[in-house]
């Protein structure tokens, strides 16, 4: 990556992280649609479908993660973008194994102190400016805490540091509306399109009243939340893994080709 690349200098670009199973990218259309939305919002020319379809891995057995990085390229004076832009596309693929024990046993999560800035122009995009997530993730190092829950500057639930957030209440699965900030994950988009979840605006008290909570993304799948702490590490809620968790997990894992463990003693 050249020193003057605008993605390196300013975070002027986008990225996608794609699960690839036996040479076939999962939720590929959703990833390309989000990349296209981001490219249009930033004014970066979108690579052709032919170029993207030619990216490896497209053969071989097993799981891999394909990461794509699209930047505006080099040039421009200061923040002023070059016209026309000459975008730069980079990719890397690596073998991958999901954290399957978290599917089975669930995870402990915590609230973060950091608040996400409200910027509707970037809401939903997977852009390269991820310093807020970096700072939020630096708030804890305990290995038994899997994720951190983030609110925006006005106190509304948004997401976890690298996953989307779902909770069951009043007979439905809900997820935060992402029209102000946050990343619209491709697994979340697919579940919305299939009517499995609904969007709402809510504060953190919604999690306190939830009957079940899950976190999910298109690489790791769906994790049931069994404990939620506040930002100081004090327990705020505990949930046994039940049929509601497994129901949403089954829908999500069907999209990714992951298994759903059989439940015992679940009402």
UniProtKB/TrEMBL annotation:
It catalyses: 4-amino-4-deoxychorismate = 4-aminobenzoate + pyruvate + H(+). Pfam families: Aminotran_4. It is an enzyme of class 4 (lyase). Pathway: Cofactor biosynthesis; tetrahydrofolate biosynthesis; 4-aminobenzoate from chorismate: step 2/2. Keywords: Folate biosynthesis, Lyase, Pyridoxal phosphate. The keyword Lyase applies. Its cofactor is pyridoxal 5'-phosphate. Its EC number is 4.1.3.38. It comes from the Bacteria. InterPro entries: Aminodeoxychorismate_lyase_IV, Aminotrans_IV, Aminotransferase-like, BCAT-like_C, BCAT-like_N, Class-IV_PLP-Dep_Aminotrnsfr. GO terms for molecular function: 4-amino-4-deoxychorismate lyase activity. Belongs to the class-IV pyridoxal-phosphate-dependent aminotransferase family. Homodimer. This is Aminodeoxychorismate lyase. It comes from Halomonas koreensis. The gene is pabC.
């Amino acid at each position: 990556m050249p020193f003057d690349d605008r993605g390196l200098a300013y975070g002027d670009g986008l990225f996608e992280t794609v699960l690839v199973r036996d040479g076939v990218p999962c939720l590929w259309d959703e990833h390309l649609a989000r990349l296209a939305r981001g490219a249009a919002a930033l004014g970066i020319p979108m690579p052709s479908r032919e170029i993207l379809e030619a990216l490896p891995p497209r053969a071989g057995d097993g799981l891999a993660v394909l990461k794509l990085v699209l930047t505006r390229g080099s040039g421009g004076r200061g923040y002023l973008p070059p016209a026309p832009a000459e975008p730069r596309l980079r990719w890397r693929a690596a073998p991958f194994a999901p954290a399957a024990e978290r599917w089975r046993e669930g995870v402990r999560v915590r609230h973060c102190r950091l608040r996400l800035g409200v910027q509707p122009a970037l809401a939903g995009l997977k852009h390269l400016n991820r310093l807020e997530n970096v700072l939020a993730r630096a708030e804890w190092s305990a290995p038994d805490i899997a994720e951190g829950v983030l609110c925006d500057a006005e106190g509304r639930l948004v997401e976890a540091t690298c996953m989307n957030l779902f909770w069951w209440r009043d007979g439905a699965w809900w997820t935060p509306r992402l029209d102000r900030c946050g990343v619209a994950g491709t697994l979340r988009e697919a579940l919305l399109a299939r009517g499995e979840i609904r969007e709402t605006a809510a504060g953190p008290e919604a999690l306190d009243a939830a009957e079940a909570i899950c976190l999910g993304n298109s690489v790791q799948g769906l994790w049931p939340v069994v404990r939620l702490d506040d930002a100081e590490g004090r327990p705020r809620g505990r949930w046994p893994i039940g049929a509601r968790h497994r129901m949403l997990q089954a829908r999500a894992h069907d999209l990714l080709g992951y298994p759903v463990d059989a439940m015992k003693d679940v009402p």
